Amino acid sequence: MNRLNLNRYALSVCVTATLLSGCGTSQVSSPSAPAAGTNSGMIRIVPASGGGFAGGYSGTDTWTCHRKGGSFTASGKGTVSFLGRSNESVRLTSHTHLGGCANWQGLATLKSLRNPRNYINIQVLPTGDLGYLCQFGASYQVTGGGGKFAHATGGGRWTCTLNGYGTHHYSDRWAGKLKF
Fold first, then answer.
1. Is residue 24 in some structural domain?
2. How many domains is the chain built from?
3. Residue 46 lies in a domain
4. Which pTM does this prediction carry?
5. Which domain holds residue 120?
6. Residue 170: how many CB atoms within 10 A of its CB?
7. Which of 11, 70, 142, 159 has the most crowded CB, counting CB atoms within 10 A?
8. Is residue 6 part of a domain?
9. What is the C-alpha to C-alpha distance for residues 168 and 134, in angstroms, rounded to an integer?
10. What pLDDT does 26 receive?
């Protein structure tokens, strides 16, 4: 073969290989498969949109309990499923009950550091008396968010460890399910 024919032959082999590379891929059936009479060779694959949700944060907290009720605020950094490295902001309030603060409840926001438009809003459900304990937990519900989490739902358990009364350091864990 001369040089010109060899180049044409190599080019045709590359074009043929490229065209055939799409033929060997497997096709996945989907509930959203096209109707009869449409191009059924192209099926849209919907990416996973949720699953197990877990992670933790640490930072600074302020915790008070007095006659008119109590407040707990926390701000920290950590890593959680679907957001990766992120910031956390938690604000809880309580009512006074038998000399202590009870029925703690409030809101938390977990916001991605890489893409701040992606965040998750969480409602921390009422919990019991914290008293002077340094560890507590509560159930939570996801109430939406921003970016790809605008319609997020889910829930689980939140646990928090405090290192004293007043302004100190804390660490916490989120565990549950998230759908978005």
1. no
2. 1
3. no
4. 0.69
5. 52-179
6. 23
7. 142
8. no
9. 11
10. 40
